[in-house]
Design a protein that fits this description.
The chain is globular, with a radius of gyration of 26 Å. The N and C termini lie far apart (71 Å). Strand 10 and strand 11 (512-519) form a beta hairpin. The chain has helices spanning 5-13, 23-42, 58-62, 73-82, 105-117, 128-145, 160-175, 179-182, 199-206, 227-239, 262-275, 311-324, 337-340, 391-428, 455-464, 469-491, 527-549, and strands at 153-157, 188-193, 214-217, 243-250, 283-287, 332-336, 348-352, 432-434, 443-448, 499-506, 512-519. The relative contact order is 0.13. The protein is an alpha/beta fold. The chain has a domain at 13-87. The longest helix is centred in the C-terminal third of the chain and has 38 residues, at 391-428. The protein binds pyridoxal-5'-phosphate (PLP).
């Protein structure tokens, strides 16, 4: 006989946090979580993985069905924990993989509290002071990057891609008023650099702009947009009667940490408005999802250097500030706390310099009959999403408070100085070249070569000389092989996990160039782990040499 539904409800009630304080049950709640943490802790080792690298079994996953009967919490937790087996520990000093930060404890708690009480940021009626937290973070961050917090506005959304979507959407409505109502009726384009994130394509696709209308402007060797070409290409669009939905300035490219010259981009925009007597101002969106955090250095005294960074680090940080301090020139900015702000996923903030821009996307009251009856703050009137959780702003708030400017400066300064150490070594060795030499971030792109290659001029020859095509391909394969060997080493707990990019850029004759990538974001990074990367590279080179001499 199955239990009656009332018996089931009675037992399932134990699976919810109690609505009225019940100390014994609270202890059960906390302890259940603690047990999960304990189990995870047992999966830690010297290797940068939780547990073991498990072969992923999608066939079994596809055969899963829902059980007839409830399963006790303890068993469910156990199963959930097992799903983390084989996960990278991003904060491990032996992990230099991608722009994925380890979240702080404060930000985990910031993310957890809303997941217990489910505030809904659609409106203040359903989120109360968590709505205030969103405004608080938006204002603090606006102030940090140099917007006027009293004029600007912000909202959290579904990732960096979401922030770009909002930026371009505003721009589209400025360039082609009425698109929201009537649909697209004329050609509009997005201009961005060839190193911009593919999110530009996604956004063009989803907004009905069309991917063909994303114009990717060539970059300089330092991975920043060539602004003179931007101007020419924008002019061509306008001459043909097209509209500019947005110019996207990438402030920290994903693989290279390239920073566009936003001031020049802005000047180009102003000139175009005058020259073509435009009745709209093409919207500039700053895709700063990676670079925003460096705005903590906007008011750092590099001469006095009170935090004591090394000379080379000061130079890097100041080099980044030079560009990041131009951010207020953008009409809107995308910020990922879950990239360089050390929060859990997803915590992405869209900031607009002039809050009245949001009127361009605000719904009519009559379209939202069941919401927004009381109070002042109803972001649901202009957000794409209806339900928005509180975890993003709460975890961002946690870290802004936890770190303060000096905390952020120290962490970013530390990872950049570790990247500098890596670069010094790579540049000092004749088998390796750093290929994003002019970019001053935590990410280092480099290529490793077999004996006998003159690495002094190789990058430039590979880039420009068509007769190098075969060499580029051979060296691409060589770097892929190095990557595999380094990876295998790392999973045994000896080396460091780095990553590989299939195309950090193309040669002038259209061949993709592979690069190895070290992305340092762990606060636990130390010089000894930089040495471990190098040792692992030399081991891999020796192994390949031995294989090919057989
Ligand atoms: C990561 C990234 C994005 C996309 O952000 P998500 O948070 O992953 O959606 C957009 N632009 C740049 C430059 C990025 O690095």
């Amino acid at each position: 006989m199955p239990a009656s539904y009332l018996e089931l409800v009675a037992s399932l009630r134990q699976g919810f946090p109690q609505p009225v304080s019940d100390r014994v049950h609270d202890a059960y709640f906390v302890f259940s979580f603690l047990r999960a943490l304990d189990q995870l802790d047992e999966m830690k080792s010297v290797s940068p993985l939780l547990g073991k690298a498990v072969t992923l079994d999608y066939d079994a996953a596809r055969r899963s069905t829902v059980d007839q009967n409830p399963v006790p919490l303890e068993q469910v937790t156990q199963m959930l924990v097992e799903h983390l087996s084989g996960m990278f520990i991003w904060g491990h000093p032996r992990a230099q993989i991608n722009v994925i930060p380890p979240p702080t404890i404060a930000s985990v708690i910031g993310g957890l509290l809303p997941s217990i009480y489910n505030p809904n940021l659609v409106s203040e009626e359903s989120s109360r002071q968590v709505a205030v937290a969103e405004v608080e973070v938006a204002s603090m961050t606006a102030d940090l990057i140099g917007y006027d917090p009293l004029k600007s506005a912000g909202l959290f959304t579904f990732g960096g891609t979401g922030t770009l979507l909002y930026g371009v959407k505003l721009g589209l409505e400025k360039a082609c008023p009425g698109t929201a109502q009537h649909g697209a009726r004329e050609r509009a384009v997005i201009l961005c650099s060839e190193r911009a994130h593919y999110a530009c394509l996604s956004v063009a696709n989803w907004l009905g702009i069309g991917q063909e209308n994303v114009i990717q402007v060539p970059c300089t060797p330092d991975n920043e947009i060539r602004t003179c070409l931007l101007e020419t290409m924008a002019r061509d669009v306008l001459k043909e009667g097209g509209k500019i939905a947005a110019i996207v300035a990438t402030m920290g490219t994903t693989d290279h940490f390239g920073l566009d010259d936003l001031k020049s981009v802005h000047e180009v925009r102003e000139r175009l408005v005058d020259e073509f007597h435009l009745d709209y101002r093409p919207h500039i969106h700053g895709d700063a999802v990676i670079g925003w955090a460096w705005s903590v250095f906007n008011d750092y005294d590099f001469n006095a250097n009170p935090l004591g960074f090394r000379h080379r680090t000061v130079r890097s940080l100041a080099g980044t500030r030079r560009r990041i301090q131009q951010l207020p020139l953008a009409d809107s900015v995308g910020i990922d706390f879950h990239k360089t702000g050390f929060t859990p996923y997803v915590s992405s903030l869209f900031l607009v310099r002039d809050s009245t821009d949001l009127e361009l996307i605000t719904r009519k009251q009559s379209d939202t009959p069941y919401l927004f009856h009381d109070g002042h703050y109803h972001p649901g009137r202009y957000t794409l999403e209806t339900t928005r959780g509180g975890s993003g702003p709460m975890s961002a708030l946690a870290n802004l408070r936890l770190f303060g400017k000096d905390g952020f400066r120290a962490l970013l300064g530390h990872v950049v100085s570790m990247a500098e150490v890596l670069r010094e070594h790579l540049e000092g060795h004749d088998a390796t070249t750093v290929v994003n030499r002019g970019n001053f971030g935590p990410v280092t792109l480099f290529r490793v070569y077999p004996d006998g290659v003159d690495t002094f001029g190789v990058s430039e020859r590979e880039q420009k000389d068509t007769s190098m095509r075969d060499q580029v391909r051979i060296h691409n394969d060589y770097n892929r092989r190095i990557y595999q060997l380094v990876q295998a080493d790392a999973l045994h707990g000896d080396g460091v996990v780095i990553s590989l990019t299939d195309c950090y850029r193309e040669t002038d004759y259209g061949e993709p160039i592979v690069a190895l990538k070290s992305y340092l974001l762990s606060p636990f990074a130390e010089e000894q782990y930089i040495d471990a990367v190098l040792e692992s590279l030399w081991k891999a080179r020796a192994k390949i040499a031995a294989e090919s001499s057989k």
